[in-house]
Structures are given as structure tokens and as C-alpha cells.
Design goal:
four-stranded mixed β-sheet, binds zinc ion, 15 strands, seven-stranded antiparallel β-sheet, 399 residues, alpha+beta
């Protein structure tokens, strides 16, 4: 399994200029390879296309020499991954357009070589030593690749992709119905599970740290830009932010460990495709939406080491469908409705627990039909939630 560790990067002005230049060269490589492929009567494989790169360097594109050769091959690889993606979409009868030429790119990938990861900077061949904020260490020694990118908001990030060993998964036939759990992520609390456990409020838990970040941010805006005090204050803000992220990650480590030790199958929503923007309050929302993907990352990582199944499911309709298996009623509800109340079968359940049960059902269907019967069918109500954050604070969940 591959895991990505993402760090904030701080390239110097000169390095940024060089990165933008290289982004353009990568776009030229992409376009050259795409054009070659489009003009050819015969299929050219990724391997064959890579072999054309040295010829282009010697001939009409000497600037291709100015970038790391493996990263050039990765850029060529994007075309082949995109084609693969398009053809699988075609099989699903979706309309697909042709690949477009690029004006520029916003990331460069170093695969296998051309990089060295240090404590507070990452060395990239043909670019230099780029400072990073390393809020946590890279887990595992087997680093596969490093990607530097700039987001639309002009922030720089470096992702370190690591391969981790997986233990063989627990055989499906050995899994008991008590040892499966579904977890729903939502806006009111960070998550709720099939047994009614909830993290009541991540926002409340992190409030002191959030307030601190906001305060240091306000103070920064009072300082004269570029002054000594400005830089001092900037450091204070960075410290406050890392305190916030550390406290959040510490909690998520404890919670993910608790779930992985307690269950054999954990069904989670594929959070990338779930819209969590209904409730917005700036930083708090940002921390929360990040928290969920971080939690999923921790669960996946810990589970892979002990053979626990983690299934990611499509979140569509999980909060509306009735989780009673005998009933397929879809109960539309607004965000403010906290209860699932089914007019067909009479099931009354906490809204988030109902969603968690649907997630578990979908997850079990995904790993093997035989397990579908493991889905709990009792229609009891379990609105009394245990606060997982209080469990974590009490220290019974050691990281
Ligand atoms: Zn129902």
C-alpha cells in the first residue's frame, strides 16, 4: 500500500522562478509526447515514448535537458494514465473528450531518484534544497516518489509517497458480526459509527488552539510588513498552528488505533466525493475537512499492518436511505433534522447512526456478498452517544 505524507514547502523566490520555468518545460514535454502519439498511425507505449526523450533532447528540444530525466518520464506517464482513465469512463458509457494540450503544469514528480528527504528540507535534483514544515515524520523507509506542487491558492506543498508492508487480510469467513463497523463523517460532529459512538465536536475539542491561531493571525496584521516584529509574530503564528495540528493528529491517532484494535472490518466513506461544505466557518471548517481525510489515512495505515479490512464506499444517499435491510425507503431530510424516522418500516434512529449503518452495509457488500447478512438488522434506537473525545482525553486510548 502507498501512503502520502504532505508537507508545506517554502521555496525561495529564485527556486519559485525555476519551478515555474520547469513547469513550462514539463508542459512542452507533455505536449510533444501527446502530439507524437496523435500523429502516429501505430500505438506508442509509455516505454517507447520514454525512449524518445533523449532524441528530443539532442535535437529540437535542448531545454528538456534542464530537468531531471525521471521527472520527464513521469510527465509522459500522465498522458498514459489519462488515457487509461478515459477508456474506463468510456466503458461506463460516459462522454469523454480528447486529451487537451497544456499551457503549463502545476506539479513535478520525482520517481525513485532525484530527491533526498531531510529533517527540514527536501533536496530536489535540478532545483535545490527546498525548506519544508515537517509536522510529523515520514512513516516507513521505502520512499517511492516525491511530488512538488503549487495549489490554486499559490501555496506550495511537497508530498512524499511511501510504500508500506501489508499483512495478509483476516479471512472473510473468520469475521464475526460483532467485529464490523461503519463510520459516517458529517458536519455536526466529526463522525458517528454504527454502534452510536460519536466524536461530539472536534471544533469544541480544538477551540482553545483555534482561538490562539486566530489571535496570532490578528496580531500579525497589526505589524509592519517586513519588520522584525512582523517576523517574530509570524513565528508565533506558525507555532500556534502547529500546536493545533498536533493536538488534532494526536486525537486522530488514538481514535484510529482504537478502531483498528476493536474491529476486523471498518467501512468508511470515500470522503473525496462527499461534499462537506454545508457548514462553513473558515479555519474550523478547514481543520475538520482535513481531519477526516487524515483519520482515513491513519486507519488505512494502521489496518494494513494487522490485516484489518478497510472498505471505502460511495457516500451517495447514505444519510437518506433507511438502514433497515428489509426496507429500501429513501427518507429525504434537511441538515437540521437529526433523526431518521422511516414512515415505511417505523425505524427511528439517530441520523448519523443510520448513515453509518448504510455505509457498513455497502462496505460489506463490497468485500463479499456472503457478509451482507452480517449487517445488523435490529431496529433499536441508539441515540445515546458515547463521546469518543472524552474517551481519548481520559487517556484510555494510548497512541
Ligand atoms: Zn424503513
Amino acid at each position: 500500500m502507498k501512503l502520502a505524507y504532505q508537507y508545506k514547502a517554502h521555496p525561495t523566490k529564485e527556486q519559485q522562478t525555476e519551478l515555474y520555468r520547469q513547469f513550462n518545460v514539463h508542459a512542452d514535454i507533455y505536449n510533444k509526447a501527446l502530439e507524437t502519439l496523435n500523429k502516429s498511425d501505430e500505438w506508442i507505449s509509455h516505454y517507447q515514448m520514454n525512449n524518445k526523450l533523449p532524441k528530443w533532447k539532442r535535437g529540437e528540444h535542448p531545454d528538456f535537458k534542464t530537468i531531471h530525466s525521471k521527472s520527464a518520464q513521469e510527465t509522459v506517464g500522465r498522458i498514459y494514465r489519462a488515457i487509461k482513465g478515459l477508456s474506463s469512463q468510456k466503458q461506463k458509457n460516459r462522454k469523454v473528450g480528447k486529451l487537451r494540450y497544456k499551457n503549463t503544469v502545476n506539479s513535478i514528480e520525482y520517481n525513485q531518484s532525484g530527491f533526498t528527504v531531510h529533517d527540514d528540507y527536501i533536496e530536489l535534483s535540478k532545483i535545490g534544497d527546498i525548506p519544508i514544515t515537517k509536522h510529523r515524520p515520514v512513516g516507513g523507509n521505502d520512499i517511492k516518489s516525491v511530488i512538488i506542487k503549487q495549489t490554486r491558492t499559490s501555496e506550495w506543498f511537497i508530498s512524499v509517497i511511501v510504500s508500506v508492508d501489508e499483512t495478509e487480510e483476516i479471512p472473510i469467513e473468520d469475521i464475526h458480526s460483532d467485529d464490523v463497523v461503519g463510520i459516517d463523517v458529517n458536519v455536526s460532529n466529526l463522525f458517528a459509527d454504527t454502534e452510536g459512538n460519536k466524536l461530539e465536536s472536534l471544533y469544541k475539542f480544538l477551540k482553545p488552539e483555534l482561538e490562539r491561531v486566530k489571535k496570532e493571525h490578528r496580531n500579525l496584521s497589526c505589524k509592519e510588513y517586513g519588520s522584525n516584529n512582523y517576523y517574530k509574530q509570524k513565528k508565533k503564528l506558525a507555532k500556534a498552528y502547529s500546536n493545533l495540528v498536533n493536538k488534532r493528529d494526536d486525537l486522530l491517532h488514538k481514535l484510529s488505533k482504537w478502531y483498528v484494535e476493536k474491529y476486523d472490518v471498518i467501512a468508511l466513506e470515500d470522503v473525496d466525493s462527499k461534499e462537506l461544505s454545508e457548514q462553513s466557518n473558515g479555519l474550523g471548517k478547514y481543520i475538520r475537512s482535513q481531519a477526516w481525510s487524515r483519520f482515513a489515512e491513519f486507519v488505512n495505515y494502521k489496518a494494513s499492518q494487522v490485516g484489518v479490512h478497510v472498505v471505502s464506499v460511495d457516500p451517495a444517499y447514505t444519510s437518506q436511505d433507511c438502514s433497515n435491510r428489509e426496507c429500501s425507503n429513501r427518507v429525504k431530510k434537511s441538515l437540521s433534522e437529526r433523526e431518521h424516522s422511516c414512515s415505511e418500516c417505523g425505524l427511528e434512529l439517530d441520523r448519523d447512526v443510520n448513515a453509518a449503518r448504510n455505509i457498513l452495509r455497502k462496505g460489506l457488500e463490497k468485500i463479499g456478498q456472503g457478509l451482507a447478512e452480517l449487517t445488523p438488522v435490529e431496529t433499536g434506537t441508539s441515540c445515546d452517544a458515547v463521546s469518543l473525545s472524552s474517551v481519548a482525553e481520559a487517556g484510555s486510548l494510548d497512541a
